[in-house]
Amino acid sequence: MKKNDTGPLNRHGLMEARTSGPPPPPIEPLTVLECGTCNLRQTTLDSVTGFPTILTLTVDVDLLFDTHPRVGVVYLQIGKFSGLESAYGWELFGEILGVAATSLRTWSLSGEWKYRILSIHFNNVDGFYLVVTMNGLKSETPHLLLELLANQLRELVYNALCTPFGHSVIDLLGVFQCSMKLDHDPRVRASRQLHRAFKETSRLVNRSERKEQDALEQEVRKIITERIIHTVFQPIVHMASQQRVGYEALTRGPEGSLLENPEPLFAAARDNSLLMELESICQASAFDSIVAFKPQGRIFVNTSSNFITHPLFHKRLKESVLKKMVSSLVFEITEKEAIQNYHDFRKAIDPVRKEGIRLAVDDAGSGYADLESIAEVRPEYIKIANSITRNVSRDLIKQEIVSSFLGLALKLRSTVIAEGIETREDFHVLKRLGVEYGQGYFLGRPAQLVKAS
User: Which of 60, 154, 218, 337 would be a feasible disulfide site paired with 177, CB 3.0-4.6 Å?
Assistant: First the structure.
């Protein structure tokens, strides 16, 4: 390897300075400051991330450059848009922030940067600011060192998030980074220079995020315009006999793309006010597939509470190709937001039910389909959410929740379907509890079906 006159590279690619004397004393790890008798921990620590929500340095901020003439700011932002919370719930975003904060905290307590961190604080929304000292790092391009650090932290947080939440969620969200070296101006207070750096890095990150969101919007519009979707069917099975009694029609976006799975696809459409357009083509695709396949048993078709009351929905039901199959259709209410007016909703769907079409409430137990929705809609089917059925064999509380839904269904004369059954153990426990019908990878994966002859 060719020698570098500026010093050897450490494992982070940072060039350490060559010094002839003893190394400088380490910077003390970040601590929480106290102001009089009021500990800032009680007033400024964010309850989700555990980081302060204001700048908290280990030195007097206005004497910062006296002690640390080479300072940099790194900003990390977890991309966030309204569609994600509508699709997955606001609780999920809180969990994402918590995991991101934990990965940063673990990193800050180890490695070469441990004693170079002057501050980490949370912006109270979706971003983290890091103030670091670059004292003792010899380089003609310190801004490149900061850029390298920002990229490393972005990769660290991204990998930490993908493990529990999966790529489909995190890629849709995005993790953005920006860095800036502070050029000290003795005419300007250090505190103002820091806050200007915070503002500028945040602005640059938001601009990058906006570009990605614009690209995502264009992709959704292309999917809708060119109808780049297809319908797959997942079997619904009688638990005792394991015989197929019906199917759920599920939408898939462009194969291999970020928007292949329905959750990110609908979240992106919701965020860009394209939900009605997307739902329209998805339902048309489902109906076309149903007519072509002519499946036996009940066919569950997803619909939002808004779309099922739309004139276009009622117009489609009157089409001759569907009239013959109306008695086998079950419309599954999948809207993540609450129904605003149950009286108007029941009035709007009354003609649908008079046609012989049945209703199902999806995601029961997830927090969206609450007991009020079930009581007001009085569906023929109650579909218990994956979050309840997953690992139900090892969770007595989840078993009690399932039993509660079975008791409620009995009083409403509804039928319970357990979604998300993925293991033999969960299947047998749900069957023992009295669940009559099930759906999930253990019982059958979604697949495209060939046309009936």
Answer: 154
